[in-house]
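Review this today:
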Amino acid sequence: MAISNPRPATGANKDRKRVGRGEGSGHGKTSTRGSNGAGSRSGNKYRAGFEGGQMPLARRLPKFGFHSPHRTEYQIINVDTLEACVANGRLPQGQTITPDVLWEAGLINRQGMPVKVLGDGELTVALNVQAHKISKSAIEKIEKAGGKTEQIFAESVTSKA
């Protein structure tokens, strides 16, 4: 074999299984489906997780905890991220920072989801921040730097996604 004449490795390519082509083929009569059961019939559809009547794995395993169906999930952003983005020009210095401004700057992923500001890091720039939730430490750091905070409510979230 030469570089100009490549061939697949031995055993890499197999002929497809041609079922229902007579007894001599080894795949005749029942066409590899077996004699009885739903799998041998046309139109059979086993649902996902069906284990032939055996108790499915998802029902054998224990369940733990509680997941509230009414949980509100927030997109989080820290004050050090806000400062870094103001410093490098991604966020405007004098303008009020709202979820829409954060969306346009690419700092949050989903526009219709509420935003929470957390107080991780240091803040030296005075910022006016509007968010759905703001932690106590973030409020302290923003006000200490000379800025203002305002909590907006979930009704004002506009889903443009």
The chain has a mean pLDDT of 90. The chain has four helices and five strands.
